[in-house]
Amino acid sequence: MLTEALQRYFGYTTFRPGQQAVIEAVLRGEDVVAVLPTGTGKSLCYQLPTKLLPHATLIVSPLLSLMQDQVEQLKKMGERRVIALNSFLNRAQKQHVLATLSQYEFIFTSPEMLQQPDVRAVLQTLPLSLIVVDEAHCLSQWGFDFRPDYLQIADVFQQHGRPGILALSATATQQVLADIKHYLRLNEPFELIQSVDRPNIRLMRERFTTQEEKLQWAFSYIEAAKGAGILYTQSRKKCEHYAQQLLARHVRVAYYHAGMDMYDRQLIQQQFIAGELDWIVATNAFGMGVHKDNIRHVLHDVFPATVANYMQEIGRAGRDGEPAIAVLLYAQGDEQLVTYVATEDIPNDVQVDLYTQQVDPYDIVRHGAASDTQFRVLHYWLQQKNAQQVKHLLGELRLEKRKQIEAMQQIVSTAACLRQLVVNAFGQVVEEKPTECCINCGATYELHVVMDKKAPLAMDVNWQMRLHALFPL
Amino acid sequence: MKFKQLLLYLLQSFREERTVSAPYHLLKGKRSGQTIQDVGLFSLYAYFGILPKLARTRFDEAIDELVQEGRLTVYEDGYYMVHQTINEAPPYYDGWHYRGHEHVFFARLSLAVQTLSQQQAGDLRFVPLQKDEAVQQYVRDFLRWAHYETGTIGRVLKEELMLVCSELSEQQAQRLLLRLSGAHVTGYSWAQLALFYDETQLDTQLSFVSVLHTVLAHIERLNVPLLQALTQHIKVDTVVTHSALQTAQLYNEGHTLEQIAQLRRLKISTIEDHIVEMAMSDATFSLAPFVNEQDVANVQMLVEQLQTRKLKPLKEHLPHMSYFQLRLILAKGGRSSC
Ligand SMILES: [Zn+2]
After folding, report:
1. What is the distance between the alpha carbons of residues A14 and A20, in angstroms, rounded to a whole number?
2. DSSP for A62-84?
């Protein structure tokens, strides 16, 4: 029955592991916590039930880009009754959306929007079949992306007679799970916890004394590599610089970062998906919405600040299930750089005092005593807590970031199995090690790649030819 | 024309009568009385607001380079002297009429092209590369209006583009096409185009604005109904500032300047600024209520004689005229024909 619906609405013939059990529980109206690694069809767990249940589904999503991507994917599948109720809408658009909300099957929104009285009022009268909380680990202080505004989601809906809640999370540590159940007030939820492990990705690591050696290794690797890959780096400048060096080595490469026009970013992404580019040098802005299954390599120029980010970024490789390689690069001193970048936005105690002493707190930004981001953090917390509490909280936050970085440093320095270490960080264990496991288990760089190169139309063809390629008829 | 060349050309056009920042405000399309009046005074309509996102640091860098290359001297008070005469005129721009909206036109065009190219390829499951909701809505309406379901308008759009492109230079047409994407062709980023043409990204973007302005001018003239439908509200022909618009309304209702000043609780000089803006923006604006024909002729002759558009020397020769009257005549007289 369910497989029939799957075929009818989505054109698939089988479920991926875990999907069916979650969907069945959702259809029974139960609360559900599902931990599924990214790229394993998380969204289907609410998309299919929505088609089968009588009323709409509300999806609360913390990231605008994630929301936009999910909306686009649904529209691409021909789903028209999709709406995103987010801060991109102006006043008039928002009023219009609210007035016509009952027409939609999929309603995406952000935790911030849920706090607005007019949005709440409409949602409380709207018949819903299901509430989805995406990236639910964001509501745990123990999670890597704690979002305080997530804590209030449960307040929007009455405990009695509310529809089932499906909480989707990428982490399954006991603390995170306990927080999710507690703050969402879940009612004896059905739990499905799938391994975050991606056995087809080999976890490699290379250590160097100098930055120069590290880069030379990376460039040589990329030059010789077969199949598509991503080189992640930290700054926009480095993206551009590395791409330039690789272009000089005749690699089909482009850079990608958030400083580019939206349209430019889309073009580069499209070229990569179409197989016209082999490599992307990117900041962590790249990845969301890149639906390319045959990425074979992910390199990290500098290690990410959290294990979660590391997993998410390497998880973009090998979506097709074929072997892929992730290489974590390290040169002496990288940890200082990572720590600096990860903690620079957290205000210090002096800044907390400065904020409270000013008549116009924004003066601390005007006088150069704090960055805009630091100001926003201060502003948010000092509305709800006193200075002493905020200092304590920021201290904890710094500590948490350092702990995350230390966990990554361990992966950088360990002589033990990388896979076990990474998977343990998510509160899970490796069930069975693949043959090609990690650098410390003797995995190799040998990869048999079926090439998927597409030569784009040459740039210097005349305009008539390019126009004809766009419109062959 | 490269960015630095254009800067020198503009500095030259300001006749060293403004500070070195004047081209920056002009290119950004700053909506201040000074910049807008300068557009009229120095006849710089074409370049107003052609780089709305230009960063000050990028501008300063270019100025520094020009100084180092010995093509420009900047004095401590911000005034300058140009050492190299630029005789080559910049390519076609019509900044005054488009003010950055040309990029909205391009966004619509590119989405229409992507959609219709996908339709010809028989695959309508695609992710639009243009993310702006207003653009997507516009193109949806456009496609419905054009009876997209018949499956033939891709062919018509192709013919219209062919017609417009054959009016452009080979390279201009190539630049336009290289930014467009479809089912089996992907457009190129600014960085990729800059590498291809061996120029800076800013130069690439600057050329592209000229291409778009040229394309828009041809669309207006040629029989290309689909392309014309994509240009709605792209061209502006109103006064610039919101405040000036309110003044214009009262003025057109027949109020005197004094009455408007009183009604709006503004200084009379501010209202005069607005009137000057109106004179510049509205081709049909009549100077008759403010100056007589003889005065206009006198001022124009004097500008030729003295080779200046500075108010002070003009006023010395025509003491019976007010600064307001002089500015009005200069604003109207400096209007470019296009
Ligand atoms: Zn291992």
Report:
1. 9
2. S-HHHHHHHHHHHHHTT---EEE
Structure tokens at A204: 């490699």
Residues contacting residue B30 through CB under 8 Å, at least 6 positions apart: none
Chain segment A244-274, per-residue pLDDT in tens: 999 999 999 999 998 999 999 999 999 999 9
d(CA A204, CA B107): 43
Residue ranges of alpha helices (H) inside A305-417 are 307-314, 334-343, 349-357, 363-366, 372-384, 387-413
CATH value of B3-89 in 3.30.60, 1.10.1740, 3.10.450, 1.10.10 = 1.10.10
Residue span(s) of chain B under CATH 1.10.10 come to: 3-89, 242-332
Dist CA A287 CA A272 (whole Å): 11
Contact A471 B185 (CB under 8 A): no
Helix (H) or strand (E) run with residue A9 in it? helix A2-10
Contact B247/B271 with Cβ under 8 angstroms?
Answer: yes
Distance A434 CA to ligand 1 centre (A): 8
- The CATH 3.40.50.300 domain(s) of chain A lie at 2-193, 201-336+408-470
Condensed to tens digits (0 to 9), the pLDDT of residues A174-208 reads: 888 888 898 899 989 999 988 889 999 999 999 99
Q: Are A137 and A311 in contact (CB under 8 A)?
A: no
Q: Which among A263, A456, A457 is the nearest to B130, CB-wise?
A: A263
Residue A39 alpha carbon to ligand 1 centre in Å: 22
- Residue B329: pLDDT band (50, 70, 90) is confident
Cα A40 to ligand 1 centroid, rounded to whole Å: 22
- The model's pLDDT over A366-404, given as tens digits with 9 standing for 90+, comes to 888 888 888 888 887 888 788 898 898 888 888 888 888
Dihedral pair phi/psi, residue B130, rounded to 5°: -90, 125
Number of Cβ within a 10 Å radius of residue B136: 17
The Cα–Cα gap between A253 and A257 comes to: 14
- Residue type for position B51: L
| Nearest CB to B126 within list A76, A247, A464 | A76
- Identify the CA nearest to A422 among candidates A199, A208, A207, A139: A199
Which residues of A sit within 8 Å Cβ distance of B? Answer: 68, 72, 76-78, 88, 93, 240, 247, 254-255, 260-264, 266-268, 270-271, 274, 276, 289, 456-457, 459-460, 462-464, 466-467, 469-473
Residue B337 pLDDT: 32
**Residue B90 reports pLDDT greater than 90:** yes
CA separation (Å) from B336 to A17, B235, B295?
Answer: 69, 16, 20
Tokens of B99: 């003010």
CATH topology for B242-332 is Arc Repressor Mutant, subunit A (1.10.10)
d(CA A106, CA B334): 57
Is the confidence metric ipTM above 0.90 for this complex? Answer: no
- Assign domain A201-336+408-470 one CATH number from 3.40.50.300, 3.40.50.720, 1.10.3210.10, 2.60.40.1470: 3.40.50.300
